[in-house]
Amino acid sequence: MASVIRSRRHQIIMDQPLMTSARILCLTSAAAVLMFGAAIAPAMAADHPSLSGFWEPRVGSVKRNGQPPYNDVAKAELKKPNKNTDPNGVDEGDTNCLPYGQPWTLYQSAPIGLAQDDREMTMIYEDRTLPWHVYTDGRGHPDLKTYKPTLNGHSIGRWEGDEFVVDSVGFGRRAGHGALMALPNTDATHVVARFKLAAGGEEMHAHFKLEDSGWLTAPWEWDVTWYRAKPDEYARVVVCDARDPANGLR
Amino acid sequence: MKRNLRLCLAAVLLCGSAVGTAHAANPAFSGFWELTARKAPAPPQLTRTGAALKAKTKVSGDVDAEAARWCVAQGMPYVMTGAGPIDIIAAPRELVITAEKIAVPRHIYTDGQVRPDLETFDTTPVGDTRGRWQGDEVVAETIGMSAGVGPAGAPRTEASRVVERFKVTGNVLTISATWTDKSVLKGPYRYTLTYRRLPASYTAPEHYCDPRDNGVGHP
User: What is the DSSP secondary-structure string of B33-62?
Assistant: First the structure.
C-alpha cells in the first residue's frame, strides 16, 4: 500500500507544477496522514515477512529421510504394545480428547493458523489445541530446573534473514504427544524449526531438527511444506467431548 | 483549484484507507491482558424459554460446569471472562485471542473478509466474528455460536448475537459488550470488561486438562 500512496503523491506533484494554496494544503494533509500511518505501523511487518494466515498441509507435505535413529532404549520401548503396533490398541489421547502438541500437530490434516506481531508468533491448530506461543521479544529460555514442562514446550523465535527460527525445550512427557509421537518427550527433547516463505508467499517451508538423547543416537531431521489458504478462509473449530463414546473408534 | 481540492481529497482518502489497514495491526492491542473488573448495570433478564434452558444446565459463572469437568473447550463469553489472562495478537488481517484455560481461540477478522454463509456454517462455541475499525476502536460482531452457556449464566443459542467494542487506553483494555437473543433474553444484556496489560516479559502458563484427572491435569 505504501508504494501506491507514494505513486499517488508523485502523480499529484507531476500534474500540478505550480505550488497553489490548495496543493500546499493537500500535501500537508497527506504528509500528516502518512506520518500518522507510519507511527502506528508495526515494526515487525516492515522488518520481516509475515507468516500470518492459515496454512494447510497436503499429501506429501511431510518429507522424512527414513526412520528416526532410535537407540536401544527406544527400540525396546517400541516393542511394547501401543496403538501403532497393536491392532486392538486404543489411543488414549483420542478417547479422552487430549490436546495435541507441537511439532507433530503442525502437519496433520487440519490447517494451522499463524498470527504474528512484534512480540510473538502464535500457532493454533483448530482441533484439540493449546495455543503455541513462540516469543520473539529477545527473551531466552527459562531455567529448566524450575520450569514446569508444557505440552508445546517453551519456544523462542528469531529471524535469520527471511527465515524464522524457533527453538523449543521444556516439553512435558505425556504419552502419545511426543515429537516422535509413539514415544513421549524427555528432559532432553530439543526441537529447532526453521520456517521460510516460498513461491511468492503461497507456500511455507519448514525444516525440523529433533535432538533427544533419551531416544535417539543422532538428530532426526525432516521437512514440511504448507500451502496458504485462500484469503476468505476462516478457522473451523473442532470441539472434542470426552463424553462422546465415538471418540477414538477406528 | 477545484481539481486540486479533488486530488487533495483523493490523496487524503487514499492515505486514510492505508491508515485503516495499518490499524488492523495496531500494536497497542497486542499483549497479555488480565481481567480486573466486570460490570453490568443489571443481570440478564431471561424469557420463560431462557429460564427453562438455564435450569437444565449446571452453570458456574459463564461455564457449563459439567462440560468443563470433562475438559470440553468453552467459548463465548468464558474465553474473555474466565479463562485466565487473554493474549491478543494484532496480526495484519485479524485479531487473534487465545486464553490460558480450556477455551476455544477467537479470530476477529478485521480486513473486510466476507462472513461465511450461515446456512452452511457449523456453529462453534465462539461463533464467527467480523470486526471493523472505528477510529482507534475495534467493533466486533459475533454470530454463529453453538448452544451453550452465555454471559452470567444466561443460555447461549444459535440465535445469540454479541457486539463488542474494544478500546485500548495506555495499559488498559476495555470491552463493552451487548448480547441479544430474543429467544432467551427479554432485552439486550450489556456489560463492560476491563483488563490491565501484563508485563512484556509475561509467559503464558499451559493449562492442560485431562478428564481422567477430574479436569485438572498436567503435561
Answer: EEEEEEE-SS---B-HHHHHHHHHS-EETT
The ipTM (two decimal places) reads: 0.85
Residue A62 has pLDDT above 60, yes or no: yes
- Take residue A99 and report the three cell numbers written for it: 490436546
Spell out which residues of chain A touch residue B138, defining contact as CB-CB under 8 Å.
Answer: none
Distance from CA of A49 to the nearest CA of B (A): 12
**pLDDT confidence of residue A28:** 41
Nearest CA in chain B to A21: B1
Residue A85 pLDDT exceeds 90: no
Q: What is the mean pLDDT of residues B144-156?
A: 96
A5, B15 Cβ separation under 8 angstroms: yes
Provide the H-helix boundaries in A175-233.
Answer: none
| B194 C-beta neighbours (distance < 10 Å), count | 16
C-alpha cell belonging to residue B183: 429467544
How much is the pTM? Answer: 0.83
Question: CA B104 to CA B83: how far, in whole Å?
Answer: 10
Give the pLDDT confidence score for residue A44 in this predicted structure.
Answer: 47
Residue ranges of B 150-209 with Cβ closer than 8 A to chain A = 200-201, 203-209
Q: Which amino acid is at B67?
A: A
CA distance B27 to A119: 9
Cα B21 to chain centroid distance, Å, stands at 21
| Residues 50 through 109 of chain B touching chain A, CB cutoff 8 Å | 67, 70-73, 87, 89-94, 96, 98, 104-105, 107, 109
Burial bucket for residue B107 (CB in 10 Å: 0-12, 13-18, 19+): buried
